[in-house]
Structures
1.
Amino acid sequence: MLNILARTSVAKALQPLGERLARAGVSPNAVTVTGTLGAVAAAVAFLGRGQFLVGTIVITIFVLFDLVDGALARARGRSSPFGAVLDSTCDRIVDAAIFGSLVWWYADRGDSPALLLAAVLCLALASLTSYVKARAEGAGLRCDVGIAERAERLIVVLVGTGLEGIGVPFALAAALWLLVAATAITVVQRIVEVRRQAALVTPQAPPRMPPR
């Protein structure tokens, strides 16, 4: 949802930065990889040890690299299939690192099995949401629907960790269970949308086998 509503405004705001980086000869793929490595390192080093406030700040900084690489690619006037695949793959790596680090934290503490379960479900459902979209696009269908796409998921989990880091009680618990519900709904929304689009496609007859 935010991907659609905010895309034009964000692209316009980041255009000057993208142009400066393009003139400096910076590669969009280098920005993508740098942001991914930084976010993963911060998730493991801080979230995995319960240092939620500093983890939120550092991860947010590196997550913004994901917006910069798009602006840089537009400024350079070209994009590549490899860059698109790399960007999507790195997004999945960052998501896994964030939720995996929360799983690690709650598993290590051992005093909150409910939140350990919530973190595991967030990790699994986030992957499933992306998988449904990828499979749909591989079949030639569009799947840009859902109340909890990646932007929303990142905002919710980082707000939750940030508030938890400054001592707001139950902030992260609320964020995780909200994400479980919203992401599960998103999976259903995407499957329903794929089914709707698939019903509009004329079935192709299987190829006829030559006579023996």
2.
Amino acid sequence: MASVLFVVSEEGYWGEECIDPLQTLSETDADIDVATPSGGPPVVDERSIDPENVGEETAERVKEAHENDQRLQNPMPIAKADPEMYDAVVFPGGHGTEWDVNQDRHARALLREIVEREDGGKAMVVCHAVGLLAFARDSDGGFLVAGRDVTGFPNEWEEGIVDDDDCMPDGRKLPYWVEDEVKAAGANWDAELDSDTSVTTDGDLITGRGPESSHAAAMALVEALGTTPPA
């Protein structure tokens, strides 16, 4: 049985990017835990449960899971997570990750220790959480993402969300753009903007572009782990 840790934002995770992979992996024989930066319950981005943005079905599915899944209601602090206990770590996206998960030293260490482990740990990183790769270092001090093929939330999409001062609709100033920072860290970036979905697997690292790619990324992780696939 595979053991998987989800690391979820307390500043605003994007619903589908967390709930779809969480439920997909729950349909396998994987054992799943949840962590947040402080150990408080994760916070869902309100835009990702707005039926006008995501449709009635997705909005209801996310809200139900967010409110009732006990794993989400009772997370551990990232600092308390032992990477040796997990075969994989999942970082769902959402703009909120830029203010907490991506800047968390324990999250970066967790990512590094899992993917560098000799027994082949896996990491799945989606959307804005891909920004974590711009700050994570390997054990030699180099950028963990240098030379790796990745996808993630593209600048072209960000342009349609923030204003000229890089402020979000809720007024928060976006600290950086994911594509810029990850490319600066040496990644081979391709968000495949002409494709409906974009998932890239480079060894132990699986990246997904955004909400519509989260299920495909989860299925790639299921395959990489060799767990029993969902029916």
3.
Amino acid sequence: MTTTTNIAAQYRSDVCIVGNGAIAKTAALGFAQSGYSVTLLVPPSRPALDGGHAPSSSAAEKPWDVRVYALNHTAHDLLASLKVWGALDLARVQAVDAMDINGDGQQGGKLGFDAFGAHVGTLAWIVEDSNLNGALDAALKFAANVQMVSGCAVDLTSSDLGAAVLLEDGTRIACELVIGADGRESWVRGQCDIGVDYRMYHQRAIVTNFACDKPHHGVAYQWFTCADGIIALLPLPGNRVSLVWSAPETLADTLMDESLGELAIRLAEYADEKLGTLRPLQPEAVKAVPLALVRPHSLVAPRVALVGDAAHAVHPLAGHGMNLGFGDIVDLLDVLRNREDRRGIADERVLARYARKRKEDVLLMQWATDGLERLFGANLEPVRVVRNFGLNLLDKLPSVKRRLMAHAMGK
């Protein structure tokens, strides 16, 4: 991979990918390994801002990242094909063998999934953001047809002759196709005047890590608490768990003001029986991430395709926001690989096929996550009874559960 600095210049490649997260890097590797020349445009580096207690650099063991992903089989297979999965620190990757989902109230419903019932070896893998990005960065170093440009984009143009991204220092990146992988507030999407349906959940995901007294046995736990939001404890290697608490904003403010010891005491109501006492991992770290539903009116524009959170942002209750992004990459590469010889990679009909191919998967995940958030956010007794009954009923329908799990796993 060639790294360049911000000097007035012109670059030319088949594809320009805008973004600096795991989805952007994976897309760059995927296109490069498919034979395309790639320019990866990343923002100028700046000091990292932490949303809470900062990890200490003097820790004997590398601190556990508070941001983790539950990667499904689609993500695993894509990363394996790109030689990235094997570059992960696998000692810090935890397989999820089962899920234990609990409704609200004293008679809350229960729903369980396990790998055996789904006829697979594992349901998902919990991977730290730093582990994933480290492996992607290592792989990009050996990608001969990827050049990285650091700078701030100010204009995007497209015509029959191609597309171009202009940077504030005068640098121009010419290409056939621009891929927006630049997150929920996508600059690329804004440049294309793509309308967006935006719903704030008035919640923040509180993320941090704990040690637990009892072994988790690879089980991911989730509680729908109604008034206090949705709590998930995901297994990490060893007797450790990662918390994702989708909390209403007022409660989120309180949780961020408290110590992690006080947060562990709050969680005892849910976790004590299954995981025993929780203790904050050292060095302590916690972050709060605002939650919103983002539905762009289109995934494509002339010579532009959106992937990842730029194309769709969903509630994290199902843990599949990142997996949708990996699915975008798989389907976009598949559409380009199977296009007619006479059509270029930015052909309008080719990009329309990508949008159609992603429609069902994205809409289903948006409908499921948004619908569940609304359902379990309603604090009415009749609704509480119905939703708990629904969980219990679904738990007794193995064939339906298998279909749901197959979709969630990307199988």
